[in-house]
Predict the structure.
Amino acid sequence: MKHYIIMILGLLLMFIFQGCRKELCYNHDEHSMTVKLYASAEWEQEWERTYGYDWKELWTADYRYEYDDLRPKVANGIRVIAYGDDGYYSESNLPPEGGRLPIREGRHSVMLYNNDTEYIVFNNTAESSMTTATTRSVSRATLKELHKDERTMNQPDQLYGCYIDECIGEKTLEKIEMPVTMHPLTYTYLIRYEFAHGLKYVALARGALAGMAEKVYLNDGHTDGNAATILFDCELTDFGADACMQSFGVPNYPGDHYTRADGNPAYYTLNLEVRLMNGKILTYDFDVTEQVNAQPRGGVITVDGIEVSDEDGMEGAGAFNPDVDGWGDFIDIPLPIN
């Protein structure tokens, strides 16, 4: 009986050492025949695309920012969704440099986007061709409707994306690296409001840009005809006010002629709202269609000649209250998510 026990123990030890030859093998999966496809991520840190203006060449010292100051940062992590031919669906999170993709043996498509956004809402993630990103609605009591039937929304924070239409999961003993590039899906507009008179009366400023894309499709970065008005705050400067506003770009991009959902040409209205030192609120609207159409994905928008009259600025000067705390914040209104 002792001989049989010794023989069985010997066979067991032989099997153990042959099954995994690496010492202290705590992760047997990495040393066996499995799918080991790893994403190696690079980040395209662009805040605008060159179309009608080449801002790298046209940048001037008058701007408060250097061109490279507006480049987005690398995200803190990556969300990965894998779709298999047999209905397989899997999600995982990776570090910024990438990592192992959650796919099995066979054919898959893979969607990647940064997982550190705060304001973006993702819809229809179960179907890669229909996955979109948008933001929640916000309201501003003092803002009159700039475009009929457009919802007003918060500007999105930085969004990157990459879509791999086809990759094959094959069982191997060694890791297989697949380079992926995370492209920006949101772009920045530097908006400049230049005053000709009366800036000294202004205490606070904020703005809105109507006609911009309401959402973006993650599989290829296109936008549909749905438009929205984006609200943002401004900073006062020695020339007036400016803001770095992020958006998904223009509706129905790409295309030579950007149109709205109703088929009419896209148009864009820029709003400025200022609160004076005496508490009075003034609003200004500008048609910036030509500028935005020439810059469908980020750029610089400038309006000038803005005036605050001395009459408005000095109104109630005998007893004005410089406290502007009552300006009011945005009110978040949750959107229904299908």
Notes: Residues 2-19 form the longest helix (18 residues). The chain has four helices and 23 strands. Residues 140 and 328 are 8 Å apart (CA to CA). Confidence is low (pLDDT under 50) at residues 19-24.
